[in-house]
Amino acid sequence: MKKYVAEFIGTAVLVIFGCGSAVAANTLLGGDLGVTTPLAFSTLLIAFAFGLSIVAMAYSIGNVSGCHINPAVSVGVFCAGKMSVTDFIGYLVAQFLGGIAGAGILTVFFGSNEALGQNGYGEASALGTEMAGAFLVEVVLTFVFVLLILGVTSKEKYGSIAGVVIGLTLVLIHILGIPFTGTSVNPARSFGPALLVGGEALKQVWLFIVAPVVGGILAALVYRFLLASEADA
Question: Where are the bilayer-spanning segments (predicted)?
Answer without folding.
Answer: 40-61, 88-111, 131-152, 164-185, 205-227
